[in-house]
Amino acid sequence: MPKDWSGSRLDLHLDIDATGGRRSGLEAALRAAVREGRLTAGTRLPSTRGLARELGLSRGTVSAAFGQLAEEGYLSTRPGSGTTVADVPPRAAHPVRPREPAPTAPRHDLRAGLPDISAFPTRAWLAATRRVLTRARPEVFGAGDPQGRIELRTALADHLGRTRGVVTTPDRVVITSGHYQSVGLLGGVLAANGTGVAAVEDPGHHLYREAVRRAGLTALPLPVDGRGARVDALPRDAGAVFLTPSHHYPTGVPLHPVRRQAVCAWARATGGLIVEDDYDGEFRYDRQPVGAVQGVAPDHVVYCGTASKTLGPALRLAWMALPPHLVGPVVRAKREADLYTETLGQLVLADLIATHAYDRHIRAARLRYRGRRELLLDRVAAIGGLTAHGVPAGLHALVTLPPDGPAEHRLLTDCARHGLALRGLSELHHDPEGRPQGLLIGFAAPSDRAYPQALDVLCGVLTRSVPGQHT
Known about the structure:
Helix 6 crosses helix 11 (343-354). The N and C termini lie far apart (93 Å). The chain has helices at 5-8, 22-35, 48-55, 59-72, 122-135, 150-164, 179-192, 206-214, 257-270, 324-338, 343-354, 357-381, 408-417, 451-465, and strands at 75-78, 82-85, 108-109, 173-176, 197-202, 218-225, 228-229, 240-243, 273-277, 301-306, 318-321, 387-389, 396-400, 420-421, 423-424, 438-442. The chain has 14 helices and 16 strands. It has an eight-stranded mixed sheet with strand order 4-11-10-9-8-5-6-7, sandwiched between helices. Strands 12-13-16-15 form a four-stranded antiparallel sheet, covered by helices on one side. A two-stranded antiparallel ribbon has the order 1-2. By secondary structure, the protein is of the alpha/beta class. It has three domains: 5-85, Winged helix-like DNA-binding domain superfamily/Winged helix DNA-binding domain (Arc Repressor Mutant, subunit A), CATH 1.10.10.10; 118-357, Type I PLP-dependent aspartate aminotransferase-like (Major domain) (Aspartate Aminotransferase, domain 2, 3-Layer(aba) Sandwich); 360-465, Aspartate Aminotransferase, domain 1, CATH 3.90.1150.10. The longest helix has 25 residues, at 357-381. Residues 75-113 are annotated as: Disordered. Residues 20-88 form the HTH gntR-type domain. In the C-terminal section; belongs to the class-I pyridoxal-phosphate-dependent aminotransferase family. One of its GO terms (molecular function) is pyridoxal phosphate binding.
């Protein structure tokens, strides 16, 4: 027998929130009662007149709410039989898991590869955004191009040719949602094209090892010395090599000119692919930046760049200048990955480049970072037993530890205890056993005001950890 709410005087609490209107509030209250099992299937509801009188609502409001819930399947209405609750399984009550607390930002951030986001060119970005929106056609707000906006590809082709010696055209540039995506797309395309082995610098960024392995390729270590990657040690079966030739990550040395020529000759002779990560090539402090390897062999090199180091990682804007035969496969992979990169950010960056606001921002950052690097090296030099490596470039410096200690992991633990975040060298080796230990010290991330204090904390930890060796 159906349960009769109207005749049984069933005491049902309806919490009606009229903020969005009385009808919407009644619908939500009845819907919740059905979902939670307080109104079970077959229960007969009062007449619209009776419920309206009981709740102090108009009959029209109740009738409209009943009609809406009937259309949604929560209620059943039959002429002459009134309105009953439909057979809707009650929603199972799941315990709400407490939200995990967001990771606490370190008090002092000296991690490598991070720019000073407090110096983001907000005014220039806002001015460019206004210009972009003022002249934007309606189609700008529709679906985008998997290859990227032609405005940004055109601006980048000109900018990269002028500042980095890259030889490319807009039709050979692909815009991605960050450098991580660029590497992932390339890994998949390489595997699909039959590449089975890729050489990766050792030490080198773990991103490449992970991307190569996720794509199903074998990642083989390529040793690095004081002249950069040992291209003479390239495995014979390698179909690709991932390099940071302008400023090796993490040692900070550029690839020697003889080796640049040798790796290009290898690519031409074998058909192998060079993947050039120019992650911080804009930042050289003692001379003009070394030009990209891509400019010497544009048909054999994939040039990768990003706005993460110059502007900020939140933009998720990166790019690749590709050999012609890879453009189609990479664009298809991009379409399958996420259709296209966000459009407005592309147009704003294109405007910044075209108006040279991007160049001005980089020049100002270069001056600040040069001073910070010099201050870091001066402070480290006052502590005996530590060795700084690399040319005056980039956003970090590698400092290796003496063979007799202190241990890298203990230093990192001590730094973390003092609210200082930075990275160690060991994680960047293919096999850290028996390899040098050290710290990658980023000098760009803190604001100008916070940087001296971060160095005080770092040098305090280092001084206490290298007893008797500081001067």
